[in-house]
Amino acid sequence: MTLAQARLLAESGDLPAAAELFAAALDDPAPSGRAQAALGLAVVLEELGEHDAARDADWTAIETGDPEYGPRAAYHLALSCERAGDREAAEEAWHLVVSSAHPSYLPAACLALAQLADDGGDVETAVGWWEKVIATGDGQYAPVAAHDLAQRLLELDQTARAQQVLAGALRATPPEGYAYARLAVAMGLTHLEQAIGAFTAAMNSTNAQDVAPLAVELLARTLPLRGRDGEAAEVWRRGLADPLLAEQVAVRLHREPPAI
């Protein structure tokens, strides 16, 4: 009854009393009971602001080896360490979650490790963790991982690979809501990058009157959509400086945009 009473006290807001009962329940000889008590104690101590003691309680639960409450405690410990800004301790805890292979916590742990690696500049490791999240097929975390991976691949000029990642994620995501929309926008950005490459190639390969002015305009108007305004201005300048193209480019530069 001690654990049940401790939970009721915690839910009612009597955290000090709950902490006492959870601590008393640590004497439970069964690993599962001890793990539950330790995790409950960790949660309550965290809410009371006793962060070091909460971490110790998490470790007590982890060290029981309980297949359910051990991973839960590692998950709680990782989040606690992240909130405290302790990157190294958080990474260790996330690895413990991954090693447990608990399906309820594995996707979140892999995503967290991807973000930690990416923040640390280790893109290769981050990519590996993002791919592991996607492989879980988790409805909450896989779309996030696919989006983040695609963004990084775009920055690495791996547009085709980014499109493959996003196409797979879009197929696996219900076509409504925020996650799908975010993936769809990312997919659109990959096509913008491809368009920029194609328009650049066209502009660089010919000054034919029926192609080059259009390529100049399309490139110059697409680049700002990716935040590359300076490059767009240079494209216009280049077109206006070409005596064969200047007149048509000037017309395209100054024409009024269509009414909305």
| Shape annotation | elongated
N→C terminal distance = 68 Å
- Report helical residue fraction: over 70%
Helix tally?
14
Strand elements, count: 0
Q: Helices and strands: which structural class?
A: mainly alpha
Q: Summarize model confidence as the mean pLDDT.
A: 94
What share of the residues does DSSP label as strand, in percent?
under 5%
Rg calculated over all Cα atoms: 27 Å
| SSE succession | HHHHHHHHHHHHHH
Largest sheet: none
Spans with pLDDT under 50 lasting ≥5 residues?
none
Report on the structure:
- By secondary structure, this protein is mainly α.
- 76% of the residues lie in helices and 0% in strands.
- The protein is built from 14 helices and no strands.
- It has helices at 2-12, 15-24, 31-47, 51-63, 69-83, 87-100, 106-119, 123-136, 141-155, 159-172, 178-205, 212-222, 229-241, 246-254.
What are the SSEs and their pairings?
Elements: H1 2-12, H2 15-24, H3 31-47, H4 51-63, H5 69-83, H6 87-100, H7 106-119, H8 123-136, H9 141-155, H10 159-172, H11 178-205, H12 212-222, H13 229-241, H14 246-254
Summarize this structure briefly.
This protein is mainly alpha-helical and 260 residues long. The chain has helices at residues 2-12, 15-24, 31-47, 51-63, 69-83, 87-100, 106-119, 123-136, 141-155, 159-172, 178-205, 212-222, 229-241, 246-254.
List keywords for this structure.
mainly alpha; 14 helices; 76% helix
